[in-house]
Design goal:
This protein has one domain: Dna Ligase, domain 1 (2-Layer Sandwich). It has 3 helices and 8 strands, in the order αβαββββββαβ. The strands form 2 sheets. Strands 4, 5, 6, 7 and 8 form a 5-stranded antiparallel beta sheet that branches. Strands 1-3-2 form a 3-stranded antiparallel beta sheet, with helices on one face. A hairpin with a 2-residue loop joins strand 6 and strand 7. It starts with a helix and ends with a strand.
């Protein structure tokens, strides 16, 4: 099971259903990915909590614009477990002419494509968000 694709699907489906909050299982990769998405402003906030079975969970509060439309309109998984997609710092793609963002897993952690370009780091393209 692809934990990242599962998380992105849960968030996308929750936005389509006009949910306020998503609760999902915790993993270090999911937490790092959510930290980047939160920094980009596509979600309100997220918290790591423990559930009744003492396991960590992620509570994600979704963000909507004043008219009630989702801030995050599309999320696309690029690199998949069966087909990894890697890039160099010079070839990091732009999303919607810079309105969206690509999220990359580098040797220095998960970050946006813009930060990776600034630090001259390539890596695995995880997803595109806009």
């Amino acid at each position: 099971m692809d934990k990242i694709a599962d998380l992105l699907s849960q968030i996308k489906n929750a936005y389509m259903a006009k949910k306020v909050e998503v609760i999902t299982d915790w993993s270090k990769v999911r937490e790092d990915l959510l930290r980047v998405v939160d920094d980009l402003g596509f979600i309100e906030e997220f918290k790591v909590e423990k559930n009744d079975k003492k396991r960590k969970i992620l509570k994600i509060k979704l963000r909507y614009d004043p008219k009630g439309r989702p801030v995050l309109t599309e999320v696309k998984r690029v690199s998949k477990p069966g087909c990894r997609i890697y890039t160099t710092a010079q070839k990091i793609p732009f999303v919607l002419g810079g309105l969206g963002s690509v999220i990359i897993s580098t040797s220095k952690g998960i970050m946006t494509g813009k930060k990776a370009r600034e630090k001259n780091l390539g890596g695995e393209i995880i997803c595109k968000v806009y």
